[in-house]
What we know:
Blueprint: H1 2-18, E1 23-27, E2 37-41, E3 49-57, H2 73-80, E4 86-92, E5 97-102, H3 122-138, H4 141-147
Parallel strand pairs: 3-4
Antiparallel strand pairs: 1-2, 2-3, 4-5
Amino acid sequence: MSNEIGDLGEHIFNVEISRDYTFRPRHLGEKWPASDFYVELIGPSEVFFFIVQVKATHSGLNRNGNLKVKVPKEKLHKLNEYYCPTYVAGVDNDTDEVYLVSVNTKRRKGISSLPTNFNLNKINRAKLFDEVKKFWLDSNIKTHKRTFKHKL
Length: 152
């Protein structure tokens, strides 16, 4: 049953992130150890992207209002190894609600329940778009790429 829960959660995430036609998600398949989706921003002339690990549940929220999903610290460490914005998406399969948490540090513990502060609604999708775009614009990647001394 856990495969069905995860598969449904990934489908719900795919629909919710695609709602405004500002993100182009691509499912990475079963073989990727820490990531489920590569997501590009639609619109900018440059290619800006982020990586998402999806965790789904049908258990709902706990008494503190957090989603009942677990993410081991090893999986969070693997996700944090990407040099791009990375997120965990918690999906409540019963309500179709999706919640995002940024993974940008090496955490000492895993996630035992996911905060629901950042619901992936229209307003927060716009904030996510701006956050990812700002990450790439503030990086020095254009200069690095232009001055990179390749051997091929």
